[in-house]
Every structure is written in structure tokens, then in C-alpha cells.
Amino acid sequence: MRRSVSSSQRVNEREVRRAGSMAKERTFLMIKPGSIERGLVGEIIGRFEKRGFRILGLRLDELSREVAEAQYQEHRGKEFYESLVSYMTSGPTVLLVMEGEDAINRAREIAGLTNPKEAKPGSVRGDYGLDIQRNVLHAADSTASAKREITLHFKDLLVT
Ligand code: CMP
After folding, report:
1. Of 63, 64, 46, which Cα lies nearest the Cα of 55?
2. Overall pTM surpassing 0.70 (yes/no)
3. Residue 80 and which of 14, 73, 109, 115 are 20 to 30 A apart at CA?
4. Which residue among 104, 132, 148 has the greatest number of ligand 1 atoms within 8 angstroms of its CB, and so is best to mutate?
5. Which pLDDT score, from 0 to 100, does residue 1 have?
6. Among 123, 98, 119, 121, which Cα is nearest to 110's?
């Protein structure tokens, strides 16, 4: 017997197929020294895990000045650069590679706007950020940045 299929059913099936085949993406996150000092690591990582992100790389590490400068090379010369590098080398950071669908954009959404004063309540920075420097965590802002940052900190997890 031939079953009739409504057009809305067909659209729905297409959506399901599309969602199922959506490419997984990798992003780079870094939990900043002040957040580790405040005991926020579990809470921050949990926010991402509960939204379906999977941890591929995780390391507690004190950044050398050289690595911090490489991480933030695009900000070299800005008035906050020295202070940023000094803060990022003031204690351990947690470096993370996380995987998920549309991971780069979604991680930035979960993190919230760079300046905690502008970040929405419910976002990590909106809930825990103190000021623009002590803004809890860093999240890669583009495919190119994610690749560059993953390569810098996790050579074996290089994305193609
Ligand atoms: P992050 O996501 O780590 O990327 C670059 C960092 O520079 C940013 O978060 C802020 O912590 C910091 N930053 C950006 N703009 C300013 C600013 N105007 N003053 C101080 N720090 C800044």
C-alpha cells in the first residue's frame, strides 16, 4: 500500500537529515587565571558540556610570555595589551578544545559579550565576569582563530 506523504512531513524529514549531517566543528576556549582562583572551572566547563559540547583536549597550564603573546598577537600595540599579557601569565589557565555543531558561534554565545557589563545574564561572562580583562574565559572568534589557537596550544589536535 502506498502511503501518502504530506509536504510538511517532507520538509521535516529534510530538516532531520540536514541536522544529522551538520558538520561538527572544533573550537578553542581558555579559562583565565582569575576564574581558576575563584573556583569556577567546573561551573564553566559544565555550561558547555550541558549544551552538548564534547571535550577533546583539556590542560591546566601556566602560559609563558611567549605563548601569551602569540595567543594575543592581534592585540599587540593596543593600550590594554601589556596588562592583558601580564594577567594571562599571572597564574594557571585551563586550555580546552571542544567539539560540537556550529561550535565556534555557539561557544561565543554561551560565553557572552567580551565586556561583562554588556553580556547578558545567563551567559558565562554575564554571570561571572568582573571587568573586560577579568572576563572569565576566552573563546575563539572565527574558524581561522580556532585553527590557529588549537595549533598553538594542542599541536596534536590540529583541525583541517
Ligand atoms: P578575550 O576573549 O580573551 O580576547 C582578547 C581580550 O582582550 C579580551 O578577551 C579582553 O579580556 C581583553 N580586552 C579587549 N578589549 C579590552 C579593553 N578595551 N580593555 C582591556 N582589555 C580588553
Report:
1. 46
2. yes
3. 109
4. 132
5. 47
6. 123
